[in-house]
Amino acid sequence: MKIQILTKDDKEMSFSVEDITSPFANELRRVMMQEVRTMAVEWVDFRKNDSALPDELVANRIGQIPLTFDKKAYNLPEECECGGKGCVNCQVELVLKKKGPGVVYASDMKTKAKDVQPVFDKIPIVELFENQELQFEAIAQLGTGKKHVKWQAAIVGYRNPQTVTIDTKKVEEEACRKAVEKYTRKSLKDAKDKIVITDPQTANLVMQAVDICPPDSIKSEFNENVFVFNVESVSGLEPEQIVESAGEILEKKMSIFEKSLGKLK
Ligand SMILES: [Zn+2]
Asked: Which of 210, 212, 201, 206 lies closest to 191 in space, CA to CA?
């Protein structure tokens, strides 16, 4: 198995994995989306809500706010020593007190836990008018996308990379030539017999010329042995942390499986 990072920033990452099967790729995707733990608000206790929105709607919006957190600092409530009752190891309290007029933003929530902060400060929660107030205490905890979409760590997609080969000798007709030159951004005058394209964007574009070009002049092949993943974080974790966590989860599953096998003997 060979893994290669193709592009990466705080929110999105693309990487290729060689020598895996389609079911494994699918499982990796599913684990990243559904099983990686993230932090989100689960309970909101309203002290005051004079806004136009009812408590449930405001609570729902608060739940959708992605929160940063220290991956090693918290337990899932159901796995915590407190038995899920709630303690510093499985819960974080956030408090908000705001008076109108003005928009209440995610950044108006205050907490003593330095690691837990909204990923984006300017997520609007609700608008308050003159003399209106919003006050609540909220409890954030770890969860997974399997339990509720608000804990989903990332949006993940994958595809097999495509190689497009253009037989330049067969690309003679004007419309076809023009299309190929436009999409490949290459002049066919100095091109060799074949142009091979592996860049996915260019490959997709060139395939649009297939209909106006002679048959067999443009050939496309998908490499079914290689999977290119795209991971877009929708949580407080960076894409790299999500991939790492997914790896740890899969490893743990395999070790449980191995132990169970041992018991059979
Ligand atoms: Zn606890």
From this structure: 206
Is residue 137 within 8 Å of 94, Cβ to Cβ?
Answer: yes
Distance of CA 85 from the midpoint of ligand 1 (Å): 6
pTM of the model: 0.83
C-alpha 142 to ligand 1 mean position (Å): 11
Q: How far is the CA of 98 from the centre of ligand 1 (A)?
A: 29
For ligand 1, the distance from its centroid to the CA atom of residue 72, given in whole angstroms, is: 14
Q: What is the distance between the alpha carbons of residues 52 and 61, in angstroms, rounded to a whole number?
A: 14
pLDDT at 115: 96
CATH for 1-36+225-265, options being 3.30.1360.10, 3.40.50.620, 3.40.50.2000, 1.10.3210.10: 3.30.1360.10
CATH architecture of 38-152: Beta Complex (2.170)
pLDDT tens per residue across span 116-148: 999 999 999 999 999 999 999 999 999 999 999
Low-confidence residues of the chain: pLDDT under 50: none
pLDDT score recorded for residue 188? 82
- 58/44 Cα distance (integer angstroms): 9
What does the alpha-carbon distance between residue 65 and residue 61 come to, in Å, rounded to a whole number? 7
Report how far ligand 1's centroid is from the alpha carbon of 79 (Å). 8
Residue 70 CA to ligand 1 centre (angstroms): 15
